[in-house]
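Researcher: Here's a chain I'd like modeled. Treat it as a single chain, no partners, no ligands.
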Amino acid sequence: WMAGKSHKEKSLLEKHQTFLGDLLKDEENRYCADCDGKGPRWSSWNLGIFICIRCAGIHRNLGVHISRVKSVNLDTWTSEQLWMVKEVGNRKNRQMYEAHLPSGFRRPQSDKPVERFIREKYEAKKYMAANWTLPKAVPQEVDNILRSMDGQHKRR
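Model: Modeled as a single isolated chain. Structure tokens:
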């Protein structure tokens, strides 16, 4: 997928991959935000979460007014999108969207119950904290991080 891209584009894509890779190493992002599946490689960037491929498919069906899905590896990301997943992440998203889960709640594992849970969580906002809103993006922060990577990669 890198074929036909300029050196500058390749360099930026590599930085994005490193940036996302670092976020995925965080304990909170090592498992799908919705079903707890290991090693998520997808994201709903506007919700600031990392999710597995199955949950990504369900998120796509919610519509872009609720969830905007991207692949960690296959898609190009903007600074705004990178900022959202850095700023929110799976833990903060759960604090917001799962604030009122019933006690003893167990995450569903099979397809239909997982889809029902995701729809309750993001569409109906059934478990949502009352006073929480998603942060407004500050993409300049990400641009600064990406710029600072220039020096790091040359030193390696």
